[in-house]
Amino acid sequence: MQIDQTSLPGVLILTPARHGDSRGFFSESWNRATLEQAGIDIDFVQDNHSMSETAGTVRGLHYQTPPQAQTKLVRCGRGALLDVAVDIRRGSPTFGQWVAVELSSENGRQLLVPAGFAHGFASRAPMTEIIYKCSAPYAPDCDRGIRWDDPEIGVDWELGDTAAILSAKDMTSPLLADADLPFEWSAE
Hints:
The protein starts with a strand and ends in a 17-residue tail after the last helix. The protein is built from two helices and 13 strands; from the N terminus they run E-E-E-E-H-E-E-E-E-E-E-E-E-E-H. The strands form three sheets. Strands 1-2-10-7-12-5 form a six-stranded antiparallel beta sheet, with no helix packed on it. The protein has a five-stranded antiparallel beta sheet with strand order 9-8-11-6-13, with no helix packed on it. A hairpin with a 6-residue loop joins strand 1 and strand 2. By secondary structure, the protein is mostly beta strands.
């Protein structure tokens, strides 16, 4: 497994090895022992799978507050997506900054998004499937969001001339300045 640091400390790109032949490929997308040896020790408790029918579907920016804050490991099962993480830890030197990584069924990359970061993605192909592990179960009372197009954050979703397809919830999420942000950065 190749592990690369992004411009946001703690947000990692994990690229599993693929073993292929004329039938296709095999890839081990998660192995607790292997990742523990690399210093990544996460107890995932829930797997999620969503599909976006249309390119230009934007989901996010989402996060859960403590005690159900989630670390997510995101991958693309079919199609392609631009996966985004935003630092929402008050006091962090990278507060409000974002990173975007293309995940596709072709490149096999995964994005590790720690608790304290908002997460979202934009589908780049029809019928795009996103599969992700979470370190805490979904908890409606802890579910929060930030506007996908908050100018203070300035995420470039790389939509070009395509209009974003959004849920009502994502259209009405608060701006970063008005969001419930219980996360504090620690220099540890």
